[in-house]
Write a structure and sequence with these properties.
This protein is of the alpha/beta class. Helix content is 48%, strand content 16%. It has helices at residues 4-34, 40-55, 99-104, 153-194, 204-217, 233-242, 261-269, 285-288, 304-316, 342-347, 353-359, 376-390, 400-407, 414-428, 443-446, 452-474, 479-486, 490-500, and strands spanning 59-66, 71-79, 82-85, 92-93, 109-111, 125-133, 136-145, 223-226, 251-255, 293-297, 318-320, 327-329, 333-338, 362-365, 397-398, 433-434. The radius of gyration is 34 Å and the shape is elongated. Mean pLDDT is 82; it is low at 443-456 and 504-508.
Length: 508
């Protein structure tokens, strides 16, 4: 038997093996280039450049398909020796995209010269390949040459190998961008909900607190929040976080009074594996708050042992887990809150003096509801709106005498007590109007010494006066602009200025 046919077969087999190895090598090279990329433009740059060089093409372009906006957008292009990405390329609607629209619909399109996209207008041939994921076209890959050429089976086979990883990378990038956008939206909503705009009030005591909060938010220093239980110290701490430079980091809160000493220690500082049977290594809340803010609520109830370890964190900016021997660096802003008199606790030996001085770098006092009684109507309406939605009670409102009763009674439980009273009324009120009885209040006793109209004036007059003063302050005492801001006539404003004895603003 002649060996020549066998040698030819071996050469053909070797050549085919080499081609396959080269193809697989290119697929791996492409995979390495795409690994870790989460931006569509970065994926486009890698794909177009590599395909141009590997296939010897004059043009490789990648269009992304936007199903929501019903169009295609050029993302990246490699032509000649140049490669570029286009961050601001216009969206071409499917109806005006011609051959690109057909490819976006899932068809391989060989464009004749008269229907070439603008980017390939001077080419002799352009083939558009759809990139399909889960039954939806998410991109179009364009391969162009100056001179028309015959179909290439090897090129088609290579495209069949690389299309899946390119499609997967584009799909992952699209998912990442959507999640990033949702995360930005969520963080913005959290900022609105827990930031300074979420703090409700217009009274002098409340405005004074806000002024201090504004200065402290960006200072990135330790803050000690003082105030009675139920005044909203955690909301203030969240406002410090969302209004400061650490807003992109986590906000972590721990109630020091709710946990026994040993559990609080492991929760705060973390624990190493093997400290006790079945215990696994776990990072503590201080580590988890890295880059953000840690709220130590009710720190006045913390044991002296844990206080000593917290002091080390503040001094050295490092934490050692329970059972660990290695100190771990931490970058966290500490906000501490308490309703207790820490100075008295220091004198009694129940609170470390050195920790107290470390905590009170800046002190912010949250006023009690008794100190901001003019804010009660605003807070009541705010809670009513929230709970009416939560409990599906649209149209529910507070009667004027209910507002008067709320504004003239003491609130030892502060804002938290008012919130609970309003929610209970939303749930239990049978009709569409909440009266004093629905709030569990006796109007007569709540307004002792006041007639009905006097009670209403007490409840609403203070709020109205505060709103007018705030409008004048925001408009530089311009009465015309203040009236417009309040939504009332200028003459009405002048009457109210005289009624409340508010100083005259600049004439306008």
């Amino acid at each position: 038997m002649s060996q020549e046919p066998l040698e030819r077969a071996l050469r053909a087999s070797n050549a085919e093996l080499i081609r396959r190895i080269e193809e697989l090598s290119f697929v791996r090279q492409l995979g390495d280039a795409l690994a870790g990329e989460v931006a569509v433009t970065a994926i486009g740059r890698a794909v177009t450049g590599l395909l141009r060089d590997e296939l010897g093409l004059d043009l490789v372009a990648l269009w992304s398909v936007d199903a929501l906006d019903a169009g295609v957008r050029l993302t990246a292009m490699a032509r000649g020796d140049e490669a570029c990405v286009l961050d601001d390329a216009p969206l071409v609607p499917f109806s005006a995209a011609g051959a690109l629209g057909s490819a976006a619909a899932g068809a391989v399109v060989a464009c004749p010269p008269d229907v070439m996209p603008a980017e390939a207008a001077d080419l002799g041939q352009l083939v558009l390949h759809p990139l399909v994921a889960r039954g939806r076209t998410i991109g179009v890959l364009g391969l162009g040459t100056v001179e028309p050429c015959d179909a290439d089976a090897e090129r088609d086979r290579l495209l069949g190998l690389i299309a899946p990883p390119i499609t997967m990378a584009l799909e992952n990038a699209s998912l990442y961008e959507r999640l990033a956008a949702e995360n930005r939206t969520l963080r913005a909503e959290l900022g609105d909900r827990f930031g300074r705009s979420a703090l409700i009030g217009v009274g002098p005591a409340f405005r004074a607190m806000l002024a201090v909060l504004e200065r402290l938010a960006d200072a990135d220093i330790t803050v000690l929040l003082l105030g009675e239980s139920g005044t909203g110290k955690e909301m203030v701490a969240r406002a410090l976080h969302w209004g400061g430079r650490r807003r992109e980091g986590p906000f972590v809160a721990v109630n020091c009074a709710a946990l026994p000493e040993t559990l609080l220690e492991s929760e705060l500082f973390g624990i190493e594996r093997g400290v006790a049977t079945g215990v696994e290594r776990r990072a503590g809340l201080i580590e988890r708050a890295g880059g953000g803010t840690l709220l130590l609520d009710e720190i006045g109830d913390m044991s002296l042992t844990v206080q000593a370890k917290v002091l080390r964190v503040l001094q050295e900016r490092e934490v050692t887990r329970v059972g660990g021997a290695r100190a771990l660096p931490v970058d966290v802003r500490v906000v501490a809150a308490t309703h207790r008199d820490l100075e008295a606790a220091v004198r009694d030996g129940r609170f470390r003096q050195d920790l107290y001085f470390r905590l009170k770098v800046a002190t912010l006092v949250v006023p009690s509801l008794a100190e901001r009684i003019e804010d009660v109507p605003l807070l009541a309406q705010h809670f009513l709106a929230r709970f009416a939605v939560r409990h599906e009670r649209p149209g529910l409102r507070l009667s004027p005498d209910a507002v008067a009763a709320l504004a003239t009674r003491p609130w030892p439980g502060n804002v938290r007590e008012l919130e609970n009273v309003i929610e209970q009324a939303v749930v239990m009120t049978a009709g569409s109007v909440i009266g004093p009885a629905d709030l569990g209040l006796d109007q007569g006793s709540a307004t002792a010494g006041l007639g009905y109209h006097d009670a209403v004036q007490t409840a609403l007059g203070g709020t109205e006066r505060t709103l007018i003063e705030r409008a004048l302050a925001e408009t530089g005492n311009n009465r015309t602009q203040a009236a417009r801001l309040l939504g009332i006539g200028r003459r009405t404003l002048l009457y109210k200025l005289k009624r409340y004895g508010i100083g005259h603003g600049a004439p306008s």
